[in-house]
Design brief:
Blueprint: E1 3-7, E2 11-16, H1 17-26, H2 33-44, E3 49-52, H3 60-69, E4 74-77, E5 82-85, E6 90-95, E7 123-129, E8 135-143
Parallel strand pairs: 1-3
Antiparallel strand pairs: 1-2, 2-4, 4-5, 6-7, 7-8
Helix pairs in contact: 1-2
């Protein structure tokens, strides 16, 4: 089976190459066009590809999160060297959560519509932990 292997500091994710290629083709409008084209080219060449979580391929982390969220792939936790199906992983929130609409910010006190206030800078994202609690992947997906 041709595979795409994505490595983070604590994990090695393995995805089906054909499924990954089809996914990237189907998501052309949702992903950034340049990065999508580069990833398609990368995984379309050679038999097996290893993509590390480096600056050159950091965008693949978003694609990996989508694949993990849809229950596709397997993972090896490098800490315990234990294999899991991705549907065994536990989703975690990064920063203020996986969506800017999920934040729970309560401001106390009164405010005026005419008063200038600087909005706080927030960020958030999501990630996954193995059943033993080791963070395997986490990515910032939004910032205000």
């Amino acid at each position: 089976m041709n595979t795409v292997i994505f490595q983070t500091e604590n994990a090695v994710f393995t995805f089906n190459k054909k499924e990954m290629r089809d996914h990237l083709i189907g998501k052309k409008t949702e992903y950034a066009p340049n990065e999508n084209a580069q990833l398609l080219e990368l995984i379309s060449t050679g038999s097996d590809e290893t993509i590390s979580n480096s600056d050159a391929h950091s965008y693949f982390g978003f694609v990996a999160l989508d694949f993990i969220g849809s229950g596709r792939g397997t993972v090896t936790c490098k800490i315990f060297e234990k294999n899991y199906d991705v549907d065994q992983l536990k989703e975690i929130a990064v920063g203020h959560g996986k969506s800017p609409f999920d934040t729970n910010q309560e401001q106390k006190g009164e405010f005026s519509l005419f008063e200038k206030r600087k909005m706080p800078s927030l960020f958030g994202g999501k990630g996954y932990k193995c059943p033993a609690g080791h963070t395997l992947i986490s990515t910032e997906t939004w910032r205000t």
